[in-house]
Amino acid sequence: MRAGVAVLAVIAILLSIWRLEAGRQGLTIAPFAIPDGPPATIYLALGAGPAPVVVVAHGFAGSRPLMEPFALALAHAGYVVVSFDFMGHGRNPRPMTGDVTTINGTTRLLQDELRRVAEAALAHPRADGRLAYLGHSMASDIIIRAAEDTPPVQAVVAVSAFSQAVTRESPPNLLLISGEWEGMLRDEALRMVRLTDPGAAEGQLVGAVAEGTARQAIFAPKVEHVGVLYAPSALDAATRWLDATFARGGAQPAQARGGWILLLLAGITAVAWPLARALPAERGPPSAPLPRRIFLIVALFPAVVVPLVLAPFDIRLLPVLVADYLALHFAAYGALTLLLLARAGRLVGQFPARVWPLAGLVAVVALAGFGLALDRYVANFLPHPGRVAVIAGLALGAVPYFLGDALLTEAGRAPLWRVLVVRGAFLLSLLLAVALNFDRLMFLLIILPVILLFYLLFGTMAGWIGRRTGLAAVAGLGFGLVLAWSLGVTFPMFA
User: Fold this and answer.
1) What CATH number has the domain bearing residue 118?
2) Does residue 95 surpass a pLDDT of 70?
3) pLDDT tens digits, residue range 366-417?
4) Is 26:43 a contact under the CB 8 Å cutoff?
5) Quick one: 214 and 284 in the same domain?
6) pLDDT band at 281 (very low <50, low <70, confident <90, very high)
7) If 0-12 CB within 10 Å is exposed, 13-18 middle and 19+ buried, where does residue 212 land?
8) CA quadruple 69, 74, 77, 79: dihedral positive or negative?
9) Where does the chain cross the membrane (predicted)?
10) All residues at 6 or more sequence positions from 34 whose CB lies less than 8 Å from its CB, including other chains
C-alpha cells in the first residue's frame, strides 16, 4: 500500500506541474531590472508586436507569484506585462516606511514605487506607449490613486477593491472584480460604480469605453479573497476589459490554475505518508490520553488568558507588521500550554535523543518539498537576508506553540473533537486579540487563512509522523520551524 500511495502521489505532482508549466508555454518570462526600483518580472508573448503595458500589483502580504494567473493570461493576450514586489513584500529588500494611517505616508510611497515600475515598463521596446494597471486588495487603492498621476493610464482593473479615491471621472475605464463570497467588497465595488450612475446594478456597464468613462462591477462565482485571483471568469473578464479599451482582440480563455495547484499540494502532502512510514517505529505502548477535564483546561485556558494579558502592551520586537505580536502570542500560548502539560506529568519522556535529528529532518523535507512548489506557483517562500532574523524570532514562539499542539493532539491519536477544540481555541484566541485591539492587530485577520492551510496540510502530516514514531515532539519541533518560516516570509517588512 505504501508503494501504491507513493506512486499515485508522484503522478499527481508530475501531472499538476506539467499543467501549470503549460501555462507558461509561448511566453518569455524574465527578471525586469528597474533602476532604483523593486524586483520585477516581465511577461512577453513570443512573436507578438508592440502592445500596451499592463502593470500588475499584489495586495498586502502578497508577492509576484500570487498575481501570476493574471500576468500569464494578459501576456498570452499579447500585452507587455510587468509584475513586481512592493516594498516590504516578497523579495523586495526595502522595508515599508512612512505612516500607514495617512494617504501621504506609506500609500504615497507605494504609489511612487508603482510609478517607477510603469515608467520603466513603458520604456521597453515592445511597449506601444499605452498603459493599464491591475491590482488586488491593498493594491487596488494604490492603482486607483496612481491613475490620477503620470504616466497617463487608459484603464484600471481593481480586484477585491476598496478605495475612497474613485470619482465620476477617475480612474478611466474602471473594472471592479470581486469574489462571490466577498460581500463587503462587492458592496464597495457597486458603491464606486454608482458614483457614475446611482441606479447601476452589479454586472451593468455604465459609461462608454471609447470615452474612457466606463464602469462595471462584477463577481467571480464561488470564490473568496484569494480564490478570485485564480478564477478563470475573473481572468477572462480582465482581458476582455483591456481588449475593449485598447481595441484589441483574439484572447484565448484563461487556464484554470487553482485546481492544479491544489492537486500539487495534495500530492506533496500525500508523499509524506510513505515517508513517515519509513521513520523508526514507536517503542513501547502509547501513553493514556489526558482526562477530559484536564484536557479542556489545558486547551482552553491559554486561549482566554494570553490575549487578555497581552492586550495592554504595544509590542514592537520585530521589523514586520503585527508579526511581533504574533510571535509573542505564539510564545506565551505555547509556554502556558507546556507548563500546564508539565504539571499534568505529560512532558516526561517526550524528548529522547532521537527526537532532535528526526525533527530537523521533518523540517528540511517539508520546507524543500512545499517551499519550491509554493515559491514558483503560489507566493514568495524564499527569504532575502533581512527576513532571517524575523524567521528566527517567530521560531521562538511557533516552536513551543506547535509543540504544545502536537502533545495535546496526542501525536495524531486524539479523537477529532479534541483536535478541533485545540486548534479552534487558538484561532479564537487570535480573534479575541484582534477584537481587543482592532486598529493595531487587524492585519492578523489576513494571516488566518495561512494558519488554516497550515493546520490542514502540516497537521495531517504531523499525525502520520506522530502515529508512526509515537513522539509528538518530532512533529511539534519540525513543523514549528516550518510555521515560523512560512509566516516569516509572508508578513510585510516594516521600518
Assistant:
1) 3.40.50.1820
2) yes
3) 999 999 999 999 999 999 888 998 899 999 999 999 999 999 998 778 899 9
4) no
5) no
6) confident
7) middle
8) negative
9) 258-275, 295-313, 325-343, 355-374, 386-404, 416-435, 441-458, 470-494
10) 40, 84, 116, 117, 120
Q: Describe the crossing of helices 323-343 and 388-408 by its angle, rounded to 10 degrees.
A: 30
Give the highest mean pLDDT range of 24-28, 459-463, 479-483. 24-28
pLDDT tens-digit readout, 116-166 = 999 999 999 999 999 999 999 999 999 999 998 889 999 999 999 999 999
As for how many domains the chain has, the answer is: 2
Length of the chain: 495
The answer to whether residue 387 is domain-embedded is: yes
Range of the domain at 52: 26-256
pLDDT of residue 286: 67
C-alpha cell of residue 463 = 499525525
